[in-house]
Amino acid sequence: MPDAAETTPSDAPADPRRRRLANGFIFAFLAFQIAMPLRYYLGDRGYDERFSWRMFSTLRLQQCQMRVSERKGAPPAHAARDVKVQADVQVAWVSLLERVRMPVVEKYLARRCEQQDADEVSYTRNCTNTDGSALPPQTLVMDCAKRELREAPR
Predict the structure, then answer these.
(1) Are 143 and 121 contacting, i.e. CB atoms less than 8 angstroms apart?
(2) Structural contact between residues 68 and 108, judged by C-beta atoms closer than 8 angstroms
(3) How far apart are CA 118 and CA 79, in angstroms?
(4) Confidence of residue 92 (pLDDT cuts 50, 70, 90)
(5) Phi and psi dihedrals of 48, rounded to 5?
(6) Is there a contact between 108 and 89 (Cβ–Cβ < 8 Å)?
(7) Per 3-state DSSP, what percentage of the chain is helix, strand, and coil (rounded to 5)?
(8) Bridge-based pairing state of the strands 138-143 and 81-83
(9) For the chain, does the N or the C end have fewer beta carbons within 10 angstroms?
(10) Which residues have CB under 8 Å from 116's CB, separation 6+?
(11) What is the pLDDT of residues 12-33, one digit of tens each?
């Protein structure tokens, strides 16, 4: 029968390399858990609500109308023509466009540039807040020649 004073394998000190590796993993995991929400709040993603901790946000309750228009030629000579977005893409994509998912907006405007041979494609979004007040319109314009997306001045 072993003496109580004898050490057992579980009492032996852990391998320092394994301990550093475990501590490094824990640190990386915690850093990721902190960095992801901070990236949202410190970045320019005000309308991105993919995280569950944002699901009770009032952003989804805003009433928004989105409009896409194309222009060929110089602005004074050629008026912009509206695009029937609902007839052009499926409903899920319309919803993503209304929520200003930037990769979707950028891809859609680029696609309109390619398909219609336009000089410029504009995306405008007008929203009403939950209290009924109008929010400032958001307009994004893609220069089709440069494939450059910029926000139009308000």
Answers:
(1) no
(2) yes
(3) 12
(4) confident
(5) -95, 110
(6) yes
(7) 40, 20, 40
(8) unpaired
(9) N
(10) 70, 72
(11) 566 889 999 999 999 999 999 8
pLDDT digits (tens, 9 = 90+) for 40-80: 667 665 555 555 555 566 666 778 888 999 988 766 556 78
- Which amino acid makes up residue 22? A
Question: Do residues 85 and 59 make contact, with C-beta atoms less than 8 angstroms apart?
Answer: no
pLDDT of residue 93: 87
Those residues with Cβ within 8 angstroms of residue 78's Cβ, 6 or more apart along the chain or in another chain: 71, 72
Cβ-in-10-Å burial (0-12, 13-18, 19+) of 121 comes to buried
Q: How many CB atoms lie within 10 A of CB 108?
A: 23
> Distance between CA atoms of 116 and 125, rounded to whole angstroms?
21
Distances (CA, A) of 74 to 27, 83, 154: 56, 18, 21
Distances (CA, A) of 87 to 32, 44, 72, 84: 41, 30, 21, 6
Between strands 148-151 and 120-128, the pairing is: unpaired
- Prediction pTM value: 0.60
